[in-house]
Design goal:
Blueprint (H helix, E strand, L loop, with lengths): L1 E6 L4 E8 L2 E9 L4 H10 L9 E5 L5 H18 L3 E4 L1 H10 L8 E6 L4 E7 L11 E4 H7 L4 E4 L2 H8 L3 E3 L32 H4 L3
Length: 209
Amino acid sequence: MRLLVIDTATQALSVALLDHDVPVGHHHEIVGRGHAEALMPVIAALPDGGRADAIAVDVGPGSFTGVRIGVAAARALAMAWKVPVYGYGAPAIIAARAALDNGEGRSILVTITGGHGELFWQVFSPDGSNAEGEVRSTPIAELAEQMDFPTVFGTGAEALVTARGSGCAVNLYPNAADYPLIADLPPLPPVPVYGRRADAMTMRERAGG
């Protein structure tokens, strides 16, 4: 079975075409912005135009815009190809990669850059397979006072270690080719997981309605 994996939840534009968990096409690039313009050409450049029997997409949390772009593209392609689409979490795929190098034998702290000076964060078991709590969004300074993990993983690792003044930061981005590491986890609905309230709100939301 071929699986197309789409990951635009962070500054990385990461796409992989897997055939029985083996990559037959892969693109991973730190683009910052511009996911919307680059994503479909990247998919089209994969073998067979990225055509797959199913699609997996990173549903976040991360960049609100990036998450929406990835989910929208995955759902549109799934509809066009008449194939199923599944979601997975950004912290989970980072934790799975971090676990491969986790020589400390302790729980894994994953951080992802958020907005307004906050970090998304989640703690996982030492092997990266189980979350030990929900995803949260916390101001960097506050999180620095709470967390004493000697090693921090993810796109927000450097910011947290700098604020704390100690520790080791391992800067990891979600990589679509790592999807086989989390393939056995229960799939998530293919809808965005924002982790906190969106920056843009309707007038009714602003009024508390």
